[in-house]
Amino acid sequence: MAKSQIRYHLAHPLTPRPLRFSRLRALRHWTIRRAYNLYRHQARRTQELELERQYNAMRDACEALRLMGADGMMAADGGSAGGKDVGRLYRIAMEKKGIWEGVPIEYARTQMEAPPREGWNHAWTR
After folding, report:
1. Are 113 and 94 within 8 A, CB to CB?
2. pLDDT by residue for the chain (126 residues), tens digit each?
3. Does residue 87 come out as left (phi exceeding 0), alpha (psi in the -120 to 50 range) or beta?
4. Which helix (H) or strand (E) holds 13?
5. Which of 85, 102, 113, 116 could lock 70 by a disulfide, CB 3.0 to 4.6 Å apart?
6. Spatial separation of the C-alpha atoms in residues 88 and 74, rounded to whole Å
7. Which branch of life, at top level (predicted)?
8. What are phi and psi of 82, to 5 degrees?
């Protein structure tokens, strides 16, 4: 079925003929396309490296907060000394309190594309 559909549309009289470049024009086309693909690859790679740098900086900052004591100094042994005050700033920074204040309720609830359990509430009155 699929082959016959493809064959029909390729041989249809309203289908435009395929492009046929001369040798020089094909070479120019290939060169421009290759240069553009190289540019896109380089731009994408640059963006990925920038995002990786930002991620690593955030990870290092979170680790520094996790190891920091109440006095603002890093724990010498990796965070075990100092009791509950070590990592207090990290725990406060990671709390999710108040992030939905001032946000419309439409964004706070889960967006779903599913029908309701009851299609129509027949008992509803004004």
Report:
1. no
2. 688 888 887 777 787 777 889 999 999 999 999 999 999 999 999 999 999 999 999 999 999 988 887 777 776 555 455 677 888 888 888 887 877 777 776 676 666 667 777 777 788 887
3. left
4. none
5. 85
6. 12
7. Eukaryota
8. 110, -10
DSSP code at position 32: H
For tokens 């790679």, name the residue: 45
Kindly list the domain boundaries of the chain, sorted by start residue: 20-75
Radius of gyration of the chain (CA): 30
Structure-token pair, residue 54: 């930002």
> In sequence order, which ranges of 1-126 are alpha helices (DSSP H)?
2-10, 23-67, 88-94, 105-108
Partners of residue 125 on adjacent β-strands: none
Give the Cα-Cα-Cα angle 65, 68, 73 (nearest 5 degrees). 135
Q: Give the 3-state secondary structure of residue 66.
A: helix
Predicted TM-score (pTM) of the model is: 0.54
Task: Go through the chain and tell me how many residues it has.
Answer: 126
